[in-house]
Amino acid sequence: MKMANRKIHVKKLGGLLCALTFIAAGCSLSSTASDSTTTLPNVTTTALSTDDTTTDAAASTSGDIQTAAERYGSETTTPPTLTNADTITTAGLGPVRIGQTLADAEEAAGVTFNAASTGSESCQYYTPAAGATGASFMVVNGEVVRVDISSGPITTKSGYGIGSTKDAIKTAFGSKIQESSAGDSLTFVPVTDGDNLMRVIWELDASGVVTSLRVGRTSHVTPKIGCSDG
Prior knowledge:
single chain; CATH 3.40.33.10
């Protein structure tokens, strides 16, 4: 009888142990499932981050092909070749030479020339859109024949421009200078072959100070006002 009770007791213990083992196994699965669930948001977050990076890269690639006008609202331009650092010579002003066509002069200057409001097809003044303050170009039948400097820092190659004095110019050039009978202008007369048809003229105020200067072929530069017959 005792042996039978002992066997029953052992069976009960065995059953209890099995039950405990099953419960423990169930808790372990639940924990594992819970851990797996909590990792999903991290995976999702990582995927979103990757998508954002891809989007940013696409935006960056798109931005690389934008023009300056699209990105900054204005177009970038190449600085003109013709500048205030250029000087007047018997050949012209800097890269713009007497005898060039209007198109060639614009190309040499690296800037567009704007036509004055007055003039005609046979004689017209043009001013550079940028690069040379106070400069204008007289164009006759499509050819540059004269350059006028009415303001700004541009001078002759020797450094005589607006603000220079009559006495300084006469001293510098000596016999090559002709003074007008009224004393209101000075003309540089070249003596070298090739330049002898060119003139540089400084206009003077009553006190003998330069107010403007110009260069060109004698027939075109001698009149104080260019295109006066145009």
